[in-house]
Amino acid sequence: MRVGFLQFSPELFHEKQNLEKISKMLNNCSTDLVVLPELCTSGYSFNSKNEMEPLSSTADGRIPDFFKHIAEREDTALVAGFLEKDGNQFYNSQIFIDPSGTQTIYRKIHLFLNEKDLFEAGNSGFKIAKYNDASLGLMVCFDWIFPESARTLSVMGADILCHSANLVLPFCQKAMITRSIENHVYTITSNRVGIERSGDQALTFTGMSQITDPQGNILAQANEVEEVLIAVDIDHTTAKNKMITEKNHLFEDRRKEFYEV
Ligand code: ACM
Predict the structure, then answer these.
(1) Is the CB–ligand 1 distance for residue 38 below 6 Å?
(2) Amino acid 199: pLDDT
(3) Measuring CA to CA, how many Å separate 43 from each of 35, 54, 204, 227?
(4) For position 206, which CATH number holds?
(5) Mutate to test the pocket of ligand 1, among 167, 172, 193, 206 (most ligand atoms within 8 A of CB)
(6) Given the DSSP bridges, would you call strands 186-190 and 210-212 parallel, antiparallel or unpaired?
(7) DSSP tag of 258
(8) Which of 23, 51, 224, 230 is the most buried (most CB within 10 A)?
(9) How far is the CA of 88 from the centre of ligand 1 (A)?
(10) Strand, coil or helix: what is 23?
(11) What CA–CA distance (Å, rounded) separates 154 from 182?
């Protein structure tokens, strides 16, 4: 299957431009799956819920409709971060959508820094989305620092971890190599680039989006600044084999009775 990431710089508060850019960059993408960054339709650095309100969408609202349209147009599955509103609550959410319109929503479990003041901690639980015979594990940005996220998704059957990110620290890309090896899965980290200024803060996002294989090889990587769609061909079925040697199974050999957690 041909899988990729879209790395770009969303403009804070400028949904129309962001959707236009996504639509343009995915034109004729010839992929089976593309992962997009966290909060990629709205930007990231909100100061208040009032600022978030006009950029938010329900799980059956205009943002899922937009991604459904692109998934149908390009005959590809998409995984993308968006600002979800449910009742009076905001969630840092991620949508999986396939060309038939089947969708799964994951709500970010581990909120980072000031996100804690604006979003509710995700209550969806970890999610697996099926596409053809591939199992896609959904995770958002800071989930990476908790190895339990990737492990849980992998034990749930994920072949590919689809990781939408707005990374500001430089460690994640290296950690995802380890997540690949320790869970024998592919990972796709789609990070954003650019500098976002809001109020008195400026955030520089670190790019370097990447795809890793179950051996921890980096199959593709963007640089720190480019806006780019990169895709590679993978055989996702190789992630289903969890034997590390003929006598060692990654999950069955765990000795849970000795673990503190
Ligand atoms: C992050 O979770 N956006 C760092």
Answers:
(1) yes
(2) 77
(3) 16, 12, 12, 15
(4) 3.60.110.10
(5) 167
(6) antiparallel
(7) G
(8) 230
(9) 22
(10) helix
(11) 10
Domain carrying residue 32: 2-258
What pLDDT was estimated at residue 173? 97
- Torsion-angle region of 125 (φ positive above 0: left; ψ -120 to 50: alpha; else: beta): left
Q: What is the dihedral of CA 213, 215, 217, 220, to 10 degrees?
A: 0
- Average pLDDT, consecutive stretches of 10 residues, N- to C-terminus, the chain (261 residues): 98 97 98 98 96 98 98 98 98 98 98 97 98 97 98 98 95 97 98 91 95 98 98 98 97 96 80
Amino acid, res. 153: L
CB-CB contact of 179 with 147 (8 Å): yes
DSSP letter for each residue of 159-188: SEEEEE----SS-HHHHHHHHHHHHT-EEE
What's the domain count of the chain? 1
Separation of CA 142 and ligand 1 centre (Å): 5
Q: Where in the sequence numbering do the catalytic residues fall?
A: 38, 108, 141
3-state secondary structure of 74: helix
Tell me, using a 6 A CB cutoff, whether residue 166 lines ligand 1: yes
Distance in angstroms (rounded) separating the CA atoms of residues 175 and 194:
22
